[in-house]
Amino acid sequence: MTEATKTIRQPAEGLIPFDNSYARLPQQFFARADPTPVSEPWLMKFNRPLAEELGLDVDALEREGAAIFSGNRVPQGAEPLGMAYAGHQFGQFVPLLGDGRAILLGEVIDRNGKRRDIQLKGAGRTPYSRRGDGRAALGPVLREYIVSEAMHGLGIPATRALAAVLTGDPVYREKVLPGAVFTRVAASHIRVGTFQFLAARGDSDGLRTLADYVIDRHYPDAKDDERPYLALLQAVIERQAALIARWLCVGFIHGVMNTDNCAVSGETIDFGPCAFLDAYDPAKVFSSIDQGGRYAYASQPAIGQWNMTRLAETLLPLIDPDPSEAVSLANDAIAGYGPKFQQHWLSGMTAKIGLAGQEDGDLDLVQGLLALMRDQQADFTLTFRRLSDLAGDDAAEEAFMASFRDPEAILPWLVEWQARLSRETMTAVDRSEAMRRVNPAFIPRNHRIEQAIRAAEDEADLSLFEALLTVLSKPYEDQPGFAAYAEPPAPSEEVLRTFCGT
Ligand code: AMP
Ligand code: MG
Fold first, then answer.
1. Which domain covers residue 335, as residue numbers?
2. One domain for residues 36 and 12
3. Which of 315, 346, 377 is the last residue of a domain?
4. Which tens digits make up the pLDDT trace of 155-168?
5. Which of 305, 321, 346 is the last residue of a domain?
6. Which of the residues 227, 321, 362, 495 has an alpha carbon 20 to 30 A from that of 435?
7. Ligand 1 centroid distance, CA of 421 (Å)
8. Which tens digits make up the pLDDT trace of 177-227?
């Protein structure tokens, strides 16, 4: 028996001030599960600013992080459990999934008074593991770490990365890989699939309890509504529409938008095979398991609505005792998704081209640019960043045009754009600044993530991982020392496929 096995459940006093509400919910909502110890935990990364935001004992945690964030020591106050959920996976309903490789340690109230989950991912088997090993490999842990923090830097709601630990144990996938544990922080880990789990069991009391819990935790305003559960549905739809619009505005592809990977809080979650666009291609798919292209870049808004419809189905009995009235109310809520998404997307995209107001014709102007970008294989991120430069400085025109295969092809669009800008009141300098605040210079490019993973896996070198985190913490600022990180991949560096952590 290893040393680690003996030390499990030794209390680590007061390091994390837990206050666990989920563990107080009815017992069918979860299964208690302790982390399984690992051989030789090593704390690769600890997110001190996030730990401070959470009100944790930062110094002590940094010292004892290897034991705690590997699951070898369960800190005092934790009530480790796996959450139960169902889900539609690529359209197929699975009535029981649950946390098979994740263990919720508990919740804390952060410095802003917000309740946050702390979860270990890859900390061993749970009653929901089925044939899985409950473990995570180093690569997917680093990917999730990088992308979580990049999303945060971009200002997009997402789960956060608190720590990453190397376990010292191998995990067996297509090949043998180093094992790791990822500590994730979320507004909550409640998914559309959590509602589906209770609905599929015909557990109407449980469903109401969950809905009330979600209202209390995420949507307290719904409580005062005449129809609280309809208001809940509307509020989740609003956040989902806003979230997916934000994804599209930075070229993000989640990769596996199953209903079990859709958080009702409105945070981006479980983005295993996620990737950002380099060249703009609305049909782009990276995930190796998404063979039909169900979760392609431009399909995400429609999938968001599909997922919201699955949520609505579970809420019908709570919305109204009369089934036809419930369906009619839910349908109206679902129908609201499209216009809400369109509004968020259009205001995001018009801001990206430097418009403060909106006019008829702006949609055509945005779509005109996107069509050219697609035809000319222009890099999504660079095009908008260089357009931001051009807005403040005519001399930047050449650099902007160089994003397009045939630079001349963009000239008619530039003429239209200038004409539209002439009807705006903002000065060129202010406009350029405003555009630079919505058009990042840096995104977590796939080839950079891949390079960081390769260096970590093959050479135990975390310097590229660290450099990426540094750059991505300020994605809207030019960082001259890191200019290469703004560049798209050379053809030989291009990543064509991404993989889940499983
Ligand atoms: P994901 O692809 O991460 O969204 O996971 C889908 C489902 O498979 C969830 O129920 C996971 O908990 C489960 N799962 C994924 N990988 C593993 C693993 N290595 N061991 C146990 N369960 C897993
Ligand atoms: Mg998942």
1. 193-346
2. yes
3. 346
4. 999 999 999 999 99
5. 346
6. 495
7. 49
8. 999 999 999 999 999 999 999 999 999 999 999 999 999 999 999 999 999
